[in-house]
Amino acid sequence: MDSASIQGDQPAVKDVRTGEALSYTAFRRRVTKAAAGLRRHGLRIGRRVIVDLPFGAVLPVAVHAVAWAGGVAVLRSTGPADMMITRGPAEPPKAEVRKVFAVRPFPGALPFAGLIGEATLEFGPLAGPALSVDGERVLDHAELTTDLRKVAARLVIAKDDVVLAAVGDPFTGLRVLDLAMLAGARVVIAHEPSLVGCRVLAQEHRATMVVAPYDLARRLLGDPTLRVIDERAVVSSLAL
User: Fold this and answer.
1) Which of 141, 143, 115, 113 is nearest to 129 (CA)?
2) pLDDT tens-digit profile of 155-183?
3) pTM over cut 0.70
4) Alpha-carbon dihedral sign for residues 228, 230, 236, 238
5) Do the beta carbons of residue 62 and residue 40 sit within 8 Å?
6) What is the DSSP letter of 222?
7) In order of start, what are the domains of the chain with their CATH numbers?
């Protein structure tokens, strides 16, 4: 979020599946507006919001909006929660929720885009609970940020890097994107690409780094123009 004031209209994230691209300024604007929308719909500090979305451009906006509004983003589609943000259209939610917001609205759900109005929530919390991967263990802002900075110091991502995120797990994807944006870099989100697909995307977007599952990462080694990172390196320190 702080990077937006420095990077401005520089590209932040591109989703190759949908073609959606966001600059740092646009990313921050969507997060602060969606956070204001969640507050407008009654989200209170510390309350849970299930975020049932695949890794893509919408997922980090939704998760950061929940945390920025003071809620806890839960990356598990079952269990009790105040609200749910989902892809849709889909089967009725299995979770016990008061309101459902869908990226593609369906009967009984409100449009996620409707959260993004004129109002913004300029200041989000710097402490307190923020995220849960399994619905049980809750990670707070300080824990997430401290770990993020430790991983960033180890991986050394530069602002001129283009990071190809070839991961499928939403939480791993979130960590890759947060690491890259912390450095002011650009992220290209791939969706379960093959070895050839990954190489094509890397060449097309002039990627300098790729984060991928072990098997794919191992097969990508040897390209002198590409730093290859095993996706486990971005999440293993949290012991999840």
Assistant:
1) 141
2) 999 999 999 999 978 999 999 999 999 99
3) yes
4) positive
5) no
6) T
7) 24-139 (3.40.50.980), 142-238 (3.40.50.980)
Residue bearing tokens 């945390």: 67
In this structure, the dihedral spanned by the alpha carbons of residues 202, 203, 207 and 213, taken in order and rounded to 10 degrees, is: 20
pLDDT tens-digit map of 195-236: 999 999 999 999 999 999 999 999 999 888 899 999 999 987
| DSSP tag of 196 | H
Structure tokens at 96: 């016990």
Question: Tokens at residue 91, please?
Answer: 């089967």
Per DSSP, the residues of 139-168 read EEHHHHHHHHHHHHHHH---TT-EEEE---
32 membership: H or E segment, kind and range: helix 24-40
Q: Encode pLDDT of 111-138 as tens digits.
A: 999 999 889 998 888 889 999 999 899 9
CA 228 to chain centre: 20
Which helix (H) or strand (E) segment holds residue 220: the answer is: helix 214-220
Helical pair 58-68 and 24-40, crossing angle rounded to 10 deg:
50
Query: How many other C-beta atoms are found inside a 10 Å radius of the C-beta of residue 175?
Result: 24
CA dihedral 177, 183, 184, 186 (to 10 degrees): -40
Burial of 219 (0-12, 13-18, 19+ CB in 10 A): middle
